[in-house]
């Protein structure tokens, strides 16, 4: 048995085969083929399938972004049927007896070089298109399922690192546990693992040859065991069962109130990133959703989610929570949460860059689409809206003007909406320091301790080398927390914590004594925190 130490991100024991995640790779190998006519047929089938994919993309784009923007997919379809392009590929297969992927890759290189050298802007721009459409065709031909689990069984997924956009696209039902070589304990991927209730370990340097081998992942200790013997598996199964029993005991807390021994009621909500997570929140008896990270909706897609698509998700969440509070945070991308179709320019310092509310206030139509979807959904439940990364009163005032415009537009169109509370995240030192002024502008504060710690301690939450220095118990954080709570209360608004610190059981009592009104935690942490609240004086 090989033992590899990493860092625990989320507890739990996973036992099963390891699968090393194969990332998108467009390396094409030259193969010799015997039956060239069969290869030409395979190429033709691949080309048809690619055209069908492009047709579906065209239809979708037509609906969502209009004909002018959808037209590019038509251009790609036409390129696949272009006689010169087709003949080049078929000739290469027949004369050089090579595989279709290789013939497509070579043709793509030749055509794009040719286009690039032309003295015509339009043709030069086609160079990127020919590469793009050829890569799509190569992926279809090689049958590669990008960034997807290849095995049909449930697996312990091993990866170099996982970006949030990759994590959200994985088939969670089939992941027993996560193990990554890199990554930070405070990253969004780590947060996702906690939300998904999946044992997870980072910083574990697993060997390349562990693919397919049986392993045990101990999320409590942060250890991966490869090729364990029967006796060890038996012991770990016992640990797994004991954990399940503990979980079952916690189930007795379902339906109980979140009230301390001295009678203070705490709102105990759940953090979620998808409709599936909402089911986990309900299963764990959360009194509401304290943070719906709406950016995951954008991360899951390869296009801007339309108003209808967003409305449908928010409405489903509001209805599923049946009148319980659902706090939806507006788009918080940037930094580690990158989305290709946003086409953001690389930045020197993305954590302090063009992100979250800064993007929304800059790209107002994008913001308004989300707000319209949120307000429309608010007619179906108890939705509140929360804005991330605030640093000034001006930002809040601009937000209020835009949301007022959205409400007016809906009223004019006779579209109903509910009474929506508007709050902000306090996750920058600037917001904490002017929380007395901000409190006068909004209905509630939710403290994002993940970013507040990052910016207060000047420690990049993504940098694994600094995990040891990332001290969420630093007195500076607690001074800020007390200041924010007091300033909120002075203005008569409620104050909660939705950062990961809110789920730290060693701090529940302290938070309550500091005056916190709400704690929003991963669904799997709702019942353990409830137990702590009920034991607090
Ligand atoms: C936070 O910063 O604490 C927070 C809850 O938001 P996120 O982790 O998504 O940045
Ligand atoms: Mg944050």
CATH superfamily of the largest domain: Phosphoenolpyruvate-binding domains
* Proportion in helices: 40-55%
How much β-strand is present in the residues? 5-15%
State the distance separating the first and last CA atoms. Answer: 47 Å
Counting DSSP E segments of at least 2 residues, the number of strands comes to 16
**CATH architecture of the largest domain, please?**
Alpha-Beta Barrel
Small molecules (ligands, ions, cofactors) in the structure: phosphoenolpyruvate, magnesium ion
**Class of secondary structure makeup:** alpha/beta
The major beta sheet can be summarized as: 8 strands, mixed
Task: Write a brief structural summary.
The protein is an alpha/beta fold and 537 residues long. The protein has helices at residues 36-65, 67-81, 83-96, 100-116, 121-142, 164-169, 188-196, 230-250, 275-283, 295-299, 307-320, 356-362, 364-377, 393-412, 429-433, 435-438, 449-457, 475-490, 508-514, 526-535, and strands at residues 2-5, 7-10, 13-20, 155-159, 175-180, 200-202, 214-218, 223-226, 267-272, 288-293, 325-329, 382-387, 421-426, 444-447, 494-497, 518-521. The strands form two sheets. The chain has an eight-stranded mixed beta sheet.
């Amino acid at each position: 048995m090989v033992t590899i130490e990493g860092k625990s991100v989320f507890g739990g024991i996973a036992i099963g085969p390891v699968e090393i995640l194969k990332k998108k790779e467009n390396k094409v190998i030259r193969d010799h083929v015997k039956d060239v006519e069969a290869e030409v047929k395979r190429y033709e089938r691949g080309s048809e399938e690619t055209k069908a994919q492009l047709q579906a993309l065209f239809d979708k784009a037509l609906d969502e972004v209009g004909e002018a923007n959808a037209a590019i997919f038509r251009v790609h379809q036409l390129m696949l049927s272009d006689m010169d392009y087709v003949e080049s590929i078929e000739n290469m297969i027949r004369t050089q007896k090579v595989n279709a992927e290789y013939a497509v890759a070579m043709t793509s290189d030749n055509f794009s070089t040719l286009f690039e050298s032309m003295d015509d802007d339009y043709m030069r721009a086609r160079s990127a298109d020919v590469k793009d459409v050829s890569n799509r065709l190569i992926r279809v031909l090689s049958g590669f399922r990008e960034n997807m689990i290849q095995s049909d069984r449930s697996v312990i997924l091993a990866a170099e690192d996982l970006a949030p956009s990759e994590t959200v696209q994985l088939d969670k039902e089939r992941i027993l546990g996560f193990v990554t070589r890199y990554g930070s304990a405070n990253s969004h991927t780590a947060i996702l693992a906690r939300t998904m209730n999946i044992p997870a370990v980072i910083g574990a340097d697993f060997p390349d040859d562990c693919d397919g081998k049986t392993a045990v992942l101990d999320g409590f200790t942060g250890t991966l065991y490869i090729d364990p013997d029967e006796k060890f598996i038996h012991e770990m199964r016992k640990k797994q069962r004991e954990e399940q029993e503990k979980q079952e005991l916690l189930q007795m807390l379902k339906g109980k109130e979140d009230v301390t021994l001295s009678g203070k009621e705490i709102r105990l909500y759940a953090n979620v990133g998808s409709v599936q997570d909402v089911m986990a929140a309900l299963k764990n008896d959360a009194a509401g959703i304290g943070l719906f990270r709406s950016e995951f909706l954008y991360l899951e897609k390869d296009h801007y989610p339309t108003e209808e698509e967003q409305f449908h998700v928010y409405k489903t969440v509001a209805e599923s929570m049946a009148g319980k509070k659902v706090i939806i945070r507006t788009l918080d991308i940037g930094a580690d949460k990158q989305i290709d179709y946003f086409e953001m320019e690389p930045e020197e310092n993305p954590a302090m860059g063009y992100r979250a509310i800064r993007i929304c206030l800059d790209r107002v139509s994008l913001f308004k689409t989300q707000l319209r979807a949120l307000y429309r959904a608010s007619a179906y439940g108890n939705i509140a809206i929360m804005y991330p990364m605030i640093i000034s009163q001006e930002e809040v005032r601009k937000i209020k003007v835009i949301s007022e415009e959205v409400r007016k537009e809906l009223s004019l169109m006779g579209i109903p909406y509910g009474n929506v509370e508007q709050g902000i995240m306090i996750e920058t030192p600037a917001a904490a320091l002017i929380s007395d002024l901000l409190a006068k502008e909004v209905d509630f504060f939710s403290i994002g301790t993940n970013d507040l710690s990052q910016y207060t301690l000047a420690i990049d939450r993504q940098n694994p080398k600094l995990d040891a220095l990332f001290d969420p118990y630093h007195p500076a954080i607690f001074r800020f927390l007390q200041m924010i709570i007091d300033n909120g209360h002075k203005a008569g608004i409620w104050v909660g914590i939705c950062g990961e610190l809110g789920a730290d059981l060693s701090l529940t009592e302290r938070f309550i004594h500091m005056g916190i009104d709400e704690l929003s935690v991963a669904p799997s942490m709702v019942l353990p925190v409830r137990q702590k609240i009920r034991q607090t004086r």
